């Protein structure tokens, strides 16, 4: 089971923090999450639907989480849209360009 790390996530209010964790709970591929020091560890299924991958892309983009971790979820069924070089996430996912 892959583990994604959300390191030093910055929340701008208590409501913002609540929304982050509510969002985590709504993404079906996330089996569980746990806090560890300054990180939030997301235990995710290795089989990822396009919908779940899009949700993780949006979450990681909004909260400035390292998106390179998501490259491992490219598959034959997601490659056409996920690896598209014009997508807003392309450089962040595949080349590690900072958010």
Total beta strand runs:
3
Number of helices: 4
- Helix and strand pattern: EHEEHHH
The rough form would be described as: globular
Q: Mean of residue pLDDT?
A: 95
Topology:
Blueprint: E1 3-7, H1 14-26, E2 30-36, E3 39-44, H2 50-62, H3 79-82, H4 90-94
Antiparallel strand pairs: 1-3, 2-3
In short:
With 99 residues, this protein is an alpha+beta fold. The chain is built from four helices and three strands.
Descriptive notes:
The protein is globular. The protein has one domain (3-94). The protein is an alpha+beta fold. The mean pLDDT is 95. The chain is built from four helices and three strands; from the N terminus they run βαββααα. 35% of the residues lie in helices and 18% in strands.
Features:
99 residues, three-stranded antiparallel sheet, alpha+beta
